[in-house]
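Input record (one chain):
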Amino acid sequence: MAANSELRTRVISGVIMAIVALGALALGGLAFWALISLLALAMMFEWASMMKAARWKLVLALLLVAAMQAYALLFVDHGYFASWQRLLAVQAVDLAGTCAILLAVVTFSARLGGGLLYVVLPALSLIYLRQQDQGLWLALWTLVIVWATDIGAYFAGRAIGGPKLAPRLSPNKTWAGLIGGMIAAQLIGGALGWMVQLPHIFWLLGAPLAVAAQGGDLFESWLKRRSGVKDSGKLLPGHGGALDRLDGVVPVAILVAAGVATGMLYAPA
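The corresponding structure, as predicted from the sequence alone:
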């Protein structure tokens, strides 16, 4: 009964989160920026809390994340041409690196500086993707890859079981789950890419990006084990914290945005 109740809470919470995310994504502009910015702040709070950072270090980290998200407002201006958007993206990455170094030096904590990059880069990536010509579909496709990976891995892992993927980091993850996540991401990502007429390369990237998503999940599991906590926070009922829910989004969003910014994946008409 307890397991069924936990699954019910997880499903209901997941549906609500998906509705909020899809609503903000569809609206775009300030609505999407605001949601991503709030999640970035929540992730930074959880990161600093897991490493038991002093209050002043936490406040400084949050202020720097807020400053970076304020800079990201430049992406929301539809008046910029694609070349200007790419320039802004490069400048944003440079600024994020500067803020991370500043935070690490002032707080004497390279881990806290690394946390700022971990939080800010995927946030900037999603906002950048949403502002492209097919931004709604690019950002949605990116998120769907992660969602499909999680769902496929969950059900394949429970149904098949078998050898563990990384027992020291996450004892519940199996190789069957990874393969199930890759298959789900490939099929769903390929179908969505075809339906919304994204470039053909997007039809083929589901499986490799599923591996990246699972890598992000394992990395966050390692962080939690190192910090001695089960969940990164309690923000999301049934899912833990923002870091728990978005661990797979971190590498996938960065990789897709990098591919778009460099023209390797997508070139606007």
